[in-house]
Amino acid sequence: MAWNAWGDPAHARQLEDSQRQLLVDTLGVSAAAPPRVERSALRLPPGALPEPARAALTAVVGEEHLRTDDAARILHLGGKSTPDLLRRREGDAHHAPDAVVTPGSHEQVQALVEICAEHAVAVVPFGGGTSVVGGVEPAREGHPALISLDLRRLDALVELDEESGTATLQAGLRTPEAEELLGAEGYTLGHFPQSFEFATIGGYAATRSAGQSSAGYGRFDAMVTALKVATPRGTLDLGRAPATAAGPDLRQLFLGSEGTLGVLTEVTVRVRRAPAERRDEAWSFPSFAAGTAAVRALAQRGLLPTAIRVSDETETFVNAVIAGSAAPEGCLSVVSHEGDPDEVARRGEAVRQVLTAHEGSLLDDEVAAAWRRSRFSGPYMRDALLDTGVLTETLETATSWAGLAALRETVTATLTAHLRTATSTPVVFCHLSHAYPSGGSLYFTVAADAGEEPRSRWRAAKQAAGDAIAAAGGSITHHHAVGQDHRPWMEAEVGPLGVEVLAAVKRTLDPAGIMNPGKLIPEAATQPPAVS
Amino acid sequence: MAWNAWGDPAHARQLEDSQRQLLVDTLGVSAAAPPRVERSALRLPPGALPEPARAALTAVVGEEHLRTDDAARILHLGGKSTPDLLRRREGDAHHAPDAVVTPGSHEQVQALVEICAEHAVAVVPFGGGTSVVGGVEPAREGHPALISLDLRRLDALVELDEESGTATLQAGLRTPEAEELLGAEGYTLGHFPQSFEFATIGGYAATRSAGQSSAGYGRFDAMVTALKVATPRGTLDLGRAPATAAGPDLRQLFLGSEGTLGVLTEVTVRVRRAPAERRDEAWSFPSFAAGTAAVRALAQRGLLPTAIRVSDETETFVNAVIAGSAAPEGCLSVVSHEGDPDEVARRGEAVRQVLTAHEGSLLDDEVAAAWRRSRFSGPYMRDALLDTGVLTETLETATSWAGLAALRETVTATLTAHLRTATSTPVVFCHLSHAYPSGGSLYFTVAADAGEEPRSRWRAAKQAAGDAIAAAGGSITHHHAVGQDHRPWMEAEVGPLGVEVLAAVKRTLDPAGIMNPGKLIPEAATQPPAVS
C-alpha cells in the first residue's frame, strides 16, 4: 500500500491527454496540481512511547513485532480519504503513531490492550488502513502516547463449519487471502467493496461494510454470526445461535464499533458455495427514477440479483468517458447474477421481466464487462485526478424509498453550490449502490477544480452535505462508518440519549478511554459524568 | 383473556374420554388434577400505591385510566407459563400490581415513567400478557409499589408508507387488529406466533418474537426498521435508514429489552402485499435427521418457503392422536407458500425438488389443513390437559446446524430423566420450528403426570434443561425471551462482561431501576458498581 496514495503503486493510473483536456474544459480546472512531497522529506516527531510501556508491550509480542522506525510509522499515518491523501502529499506526519505493534494471537491482543490501559497509551486498531472517514487516524486526544495495533498477523481461517455454512476468520485477514483460503474448500464470502484488495475481515465488521454484491450476499454485518472482542476489561465471545431472543443483541454493539470499545480479533461469518456460474448484464433506464423504481420492485418482491446498481445520467456519462467508450442513453444499471446455472437462469429471467416492465433496455454485454474490469479502480483514478489538479471525493447515505429522490436532490445541490468557484463548475453525480425492501443507499462522487486549499473547501462542502443529509432524514453513512469525519452527526443519528448509551458502554469496557480516541462517540459524551 | 388459563374462555377445550384414557395408559397420570380455585376465592393485598404517586399518575391519564380494583389487578397477575397458571389455580394473588394504568399516547407513557422514577414505583409494561417466561411478573424487587402499564389504548396504525413498504404501529396493537388495519389497505405483517390472538406489536419487538411464518416473513426483530422508546431519562427515536454504518445499531438494544430499559411505544415494521395465493403441504420424512437436512438445504440455498417445520416421530404421533387421525409414518413436516400465484408455483416446485431429494414424501392435503386449523390451539389444549392431571409445558432453543442433533438429544434426555416418577413416564417431543442459513431452533413439549407439586418438579426439570442447553452451546431462548425464568442463564449467554454492558445501559436509561424489575439482566449486575 502506497503511503500517500491508494493501493499498489504498480497499479497507479495516469490520465490520457484527451481526458485531461476534457477536465479543463468541463470543470475549469487550473493547471496547478496539489503538491506531492517525497517520503524522504517527511519529518516525524520522536516516538513518545514511555519505556515501561514499551518494555511491557515488547514482552508480549517480542522485539520484532514492536516497531518504532519511520518506515512503519509512515505506513500508519491514517486512512485514505481525499483529505488524508492531501495532507500526506503536503508532507504532514506530525501525528505519526509512536509505535506499530503486530500481535500474533487474540491472547496477545488482550494482553496489549490491558497494558495500554494501565499506561494510558492510546490504541488505534489497524486493519487494511482503508478508512475514508478518519477511522484509523492516530488521534491522541490527550493521551501521552499512541500505538497503531496492526492486525496483519491475525490472518488465519480458524474453522470452516461446512454443515452450518460458517467460517471463523481472524480479524486481520485481507479479502483476497480470505477468498483464497475459502476458495480452496469450495466456498466464498462474497464481499467485494471497492477496498477489496486491502481491507480486512475485522475492519468490515467494525465498520459495517457493504460490498458490491450486497444484494445477493448481504451486508457484512448481516453475515456475522459470532464475534470475539478484546477489550481493556476483558474478552467477550458473542453469538451462540443464528438467532436468539436472549435479550438485546450485543453483537450489534461491536459491529460498527470502529475499535472504540475493543479490538475484534475473530469473526464468524456465513459463507456460500462458490458460484458455478455468473452472468453480468448492463441495462439502460430512461431516468434515475425509473431505474430506482425497478430496483425497489425487485427488493420488495425478494428478487434482488447478486449485485445491482443504477447510475444517474451524469455518472453514466462520466464513467463512459473514463472507459473511453460511448455513453449509453439515460441511466446505466449493472446487474449480476451468481449461483447454480439453474438458479442464475431462473432468477435472471424473473429479474429481466421486472426490469423490462420498468422501462429498462438490455445493453451490449461489453458494457457490463467494462464495469467488472474497472470495479476496484475508482480509488486509483482519484490519485490520477489529484495529480491533474482535480479534487475528487465520495460520500454516501441511505434512506427510505419514499425519501430517496429528495435526499439525492438536496445533497447534489448542496455539494454543487459549495464546490463551485468563480472560474469552475464542479461535477456531482451518484448511483443507487445498495437496496433493501424499505429503502436504498446513494453513493455520491464529486469532481472539482482543486484550486487553492482543496482540504478546507472540501471540509466546508462535506459539512454542508452532512447537514443536508441529517435534515432530510438520511443516515450520515450507509457503509463508510463514522470515524472522525461523521462524528459531528452522531447526535442527529441516534439522539443525545443514544449518544449517552454509547458512552456508557464505552466507559464500561474502556474506562481509561484508550480505544481509538476521537472516533464515533461525540466527545462530550465520553467524559465520565459528574458524580451525583 | 381468562385470568387463570389461556385465551378466550369460549374457546376452552376438553379432552375426549378416549384421549384421557390414553394419557392414563401412556403417561401413568394419576386421577387427581391440580386444584383450580374460583376467582372469588382470591385474596389480594391492599393496593400500596402512595397517594402522591397516584395523584401525579392520575393527572396524566385521568381517573378512568388508573384502576386499582380487584378485577383489573387480577388480569395483570403475570404471564401464561404453566407455573403461572398453576399458581393462579392455587389462588396465589399476593403479588398483584397496586394499580393498572392505561395511557393513551407516547407522551403520556413518557410522563408516567418519569413520575414512577421520581416516586420509586416499579413499572411493568404489559401488552397481551402472554409471556411464558415471567416477563410481565409484577416483581417489586424492593420497590414500595408497582404499576402494570397496560398499553391497550396505544392501538393505532400511525402511518403506512406504501412506497417504502413500512408501517408505523403503536405498541399496544394486537395482531388480529393490526392485520385488519393493514389488510384494509391490502397489506399484511405476516407475523403468526401461537400467541397471535392476544400478543401485541410492542411485545413482539420487546421479546424478539418469531412467528410460524418466520421463514418467509422473517423474525419480528428483522422486520423492524424504527422504534420509539419512552425511558425514565427521556425518549429515543431510533432508525433513520434501512441499513446504516453509523456505529452500533442501538435498535438492537431495545429489541429484546423486555421493558427493562423503557417502554416501546411505536414500532415501524416492514409490511408486504397481502398474498393472493397460499398453498399448504404436508410431507413425511423417514427421520428427523432427514427432515432437518432438507430444511437446512432450503435455508442455505435461499429457498425457504413461507413456513416450514418438522416434527420428530413422537410429536408426529401425539399430534395425530390430538387431531383424532391416523399418524403418518416417520416425521411430519408442514410447508406453506404464500405470494403471487406465479411465485407460489415457481417456489413450490423448487422446494418440492429439494424435499423429494431428501427422502420427503408429499402427504394428503388434509394433513396440512388440520395443522392450519389447530395452529393456535396448543395453549388451549394445555389447560384441558392440566384439568386432566397432566403437566404440560414447552421450552425452546437454537443452535448451529452442526450442533442441532446433540442439542436435541441432551435436552430430551434431561427433561425425560427429571420428569420421570416411580409410576409414570413423561413424553418429550420436539419440532424444528425456525430455520436460518447457519442453524435452526428446536421447540420442545413435555407431558407428564402432574402428581404432587408439579411446579417444583417442573422448576427442577427446567433448571436441568437450561443447564444442558448452555453446556451444549445453544441459546437459552430462540423466541420466548428471558423474563425471570431464563435470567440465570444470561451470563452463560453473553458472558459476565456482556451482562455488565447490559447493566450499564440500564443504569444510563433507568437509574432508579424501576423498569420491569427482576427481568432479563442478572441481579448482581443491576446494582451500581462501588465507587473506585
TrEMBL record, chains A, B:
GO molecular function, one term: FAD binding
Named cofactor requirement(s): FAD
Pfam families per record: FAD-oxidase_C, FAD_binding_4
InterPro entries referenced in this protein's UniProt entry, alphabetically: Alkyl-DHAP_Synthase, FAD-bd_oxidored_4_C, FAD-bd_PCMH, FAD-bd_PCMH-like_sf, FAD-bd_PCMH_sub2, FAD-linked_Oxase-like_C, Oxid_FAD_bind_N, Vanillyl_alc_oxidase_C-sub2
Gene Ontology annotations of biological process type: lipid biosynthetic process
Top-level lineage group: Bacteria
Marked site positions, Important for enzyme activity: R309
Keyword Disulfide bond: no
The keyword Ligase is assigned to this record: no
Residue ranges constituting the FAD-binding PCMH-type domain according to the UniProt record: 93-274
Binding site for FAD: P125, F126, G127, G128, G129, T130, S131
Active site: Y443 (proton donor/acceptor)
Residues binding substrate: R382
Alphabetically ordered keywords of this record: FAD, Flavoprotein
PROSITE patterns found in the cross-reference section: FAD_PCMH
Similarity field: Belongs to the FAD-binding oxidoreductase/transferase type 4 family.
PANTHER family: ALKYLDIHYDROXYACETONEPHOSPHATE SYNTHASE, PEROXISOMAL (PTHR46568)
Protein name: FAD-binding oxidoreductase
Organism (species): Streptomyces diacarni
